[in-house]
Amino acid sequence: MELSSLHSLSPLPLCYPKPSSSSTLSFLPFSDRTRAYFGYSVRKRATLRNSCNSAQKNFLHISRAHDHEPRCYFSPNEGLNRYCISKLYNLNKLSRYVVAKSELAGAGTPDASYSLSEVKLSSKVRGVCFYAVTAIAAISLIGFMIVAHPFVLLFDRYRRKAQHFVAKLWAAATVAPFFKIEYEGLENLPSHDAPAVYVSNHQSFLDIYTLLTLGRSFKFISKTAIFLFPIIGWAMSMMGTIPLKRMDSRSQLECLKRCMDLIGNGASVFFFPEGTRSKDGKLGDFKKGAFSVAAKTRVPVVPITLIGTGGIMPAGMEGVVNSGSVKVIIHKPIKETDPEILRQIARNTILDTLKLRG
To answer: Where does the chain cross the membrane (predicted)?
Structure first.
């Protein structure tokens, strides 16, 4: 559909070439000369690509929500590099955009334009399939954990390797149909019998699945409410996951004591030192709890950088699974006796990796 036909749809502030007496083409609508097509942008940002200029970085934002704005004009020699609306309104507050792709600018064909609703629908379908697969895998494997649990408590009460092996199978079976995981630095992982404190950035609900595929018997820390979920809560209890009540200082103290007790008996623990998932992808401040445990028990801290999980399942959008891949980077263990130094080194290591590779 050409831009000239948009007049019948909505009072959209369109762009026309600036009138000029030197060329009769300058009086024609922009779409008549460029055969532009429109659709919705995946990123909700409207762009109008100018085929008169070969540079593909000239964009113009157009909003349907502000039909009272004056029409903007441009010269074909200048390209669409002037923003008519962005200076008057905050682009983050514009609710809906229209994207016009020029066929001559090398942006593709009309078929390449698609609506945001279609993208969301495909991601939601993948999300439904993801939870269906994880439920089927959990139901199929929970029986093995239940049968093995008495023997685990008798012979391997602290590490619980058998339960973690089943959890690894569950996580691997769940993520395999949806995204690929690449590992880097596996040689930096301590041996299975060597206790350590593992720390990582936290971007998504998928971080747990990704880390379980490493096959290490570290104990996660989880909100007590998660233990109430059938099957998943049972599996977490049998794996030895440590419960925590947020905003409860007594529960936090008990959690740290239990972590030190597990390490003293040869097990490892895992912390997300940011305390919660990052909603904007930026690395937050690290809390000192994990590093105090490592300093007091004199075990190494193993930093791990996760890249890509936040793009596949963003924080706050747990029903959506986008396409993509995940990279797990295991860094060299850090040995220090000062918790503040441990905290700074671990955070800087992960932060530098995110800046370089993220």
So the answer is: 130-155, 225-244
